[in-house]
Amino acid sequence: MKCGSLPAKADVREQRTFYESILAPFMKSAKNNECVVLFMDASHFVMGGDFLGYIYGRVRRFIKTFSGRKRYNVLGALNFVSKKVTTVTNDTYITSCQVIELLCDIALEYAGKPIRVVLDNASYQKCYIVADTAAALGIELMHIPSYSPNLNLIERLWKFVKNQLRTKYYDDFDVFKERIDSVVSSTDNCNKKYIDSLIGDKVQLFDDITVSRKYSLDMIDLDIELAA
Q1: In sequence order, what E strands does the chain have?
Q2: Reduced to 3 states, what is the DSSP secondary structure of residue 80?
Q3: How many alpha carbons fall within 13 Å on the CB side of residue 215?
Q4: For residue 34, what are the domain limits?
Q5: What is the pLDDT of residue 58?
Q6: Phi, psi at residue 146, to the nearest 5°?
Q7: HSE of 203 in the Cβ direction (CA atoms, 13 Å)?
Q8: CA–CA separation, 179 vs 116, rounded Å?
Q9: 102, 137, 197 from 125: Cα distances, Å
Q10: In this predicted structure, what is the pLDDT of residue 1?
């Protein structure tokens, strides 16, 4: 049996309403070249903070890791149709300043077209200065319901990028950053076919699935037994 996780505080009805009344119509309009729909989110890539995989055997194996926790932050906006990603990057923090910078880049890149950006409710994205800047640039912000990462399709891209990083050990931060930039910039060219299959019209919704409460309780019982 393959299990998946459902955010405990997710409002599945609100997700369905947002998708059917807002997101799906705009995605359709984007495919008809009537507007540009972009999915925005930040991902934080930590060098040395992941593992390469599993090795099965009787002898325990060790994999060398990088000393330190250097982090490369990528704030991206994924074009739903072309799969091109516009980014702002740094190795410090993502704040409203980076969001504004990205919105300005988007406005220039897609000048003359209606622009709609799908994003979550992070405080640095849902603040007055960002809202005012978007309005001045003629960009419509569409904030997804709380606890709904499944509605922000760029989340699938970040998972793809992280999977690509697991194929190699990195001990040079510049090389690490270059590899991330290379994968991200490939989404509308050499990797477009795969990204198209990964990010399409289908969005994961949870109002038609069964949540296994019994399984969760069994796992809690198991934790108690192990603790004892």
Answers
A1: 36-46, 71-79, 85-90, 115-119, 139-143
A2: coil
A3: 8
A4: 12-47+70-227
A5: 73
A6: -60, 150
A7: 25
A8: 29
A9: 11, 15, 28
A10: 55
**Token match 């569409």: residue?**
142
Give the per-residue pLDDT at 123: 96
What backbone torsions phi and psi does residue 225 show, to the nearest 5 degrees?
-65, -40
Query: How far does the chain reach from its first CA to its final CA, in angstroms?
Result: 28
Q: Are 50 and 166 in contact (CB under 8 A)?
A: yes
Closest CA to 76 of 190, 193, 160: 160
Domains contained in the chain, number: 1
> Which domain CATH number covers 219?
3.30.420.10
Instruction: Determine, yes or no, domain membership for 159.
Output: yes
Cα–Cα distance for residue pair 173/23, rounded to 1 Å: 37
CB 114 within 8 A of CB 140: yes
**Segments of the chain scoring below 70 in pLDDT:** 1-8, 49-56, 61-68, 207-228
Q: Give the bridge partners for 78, in sequence order.
A: 39, 85
pLDDT reported for residue 2: 55
Q: What is the largest CA-CA distance in the chain?
A: 65
CA 75/CA 42 separation, integer angstroms = 4
Domain assignment of residue 34, yes or no: yes
- Any residues with CB less than 8 A from the CB of 7 and at least 6 apart, and which? 147, 148, 149
The reported pLDDT for the residue numbered 149 is 92
Instruction: Collapse the DSSP code of 117 into the 3-class scheme (helix H, G, I; strand E, B; otherwise coil) and give the result.
Output: strand
C-alpha–C-alpha distance, residues 193 and 111, integer Å: 26
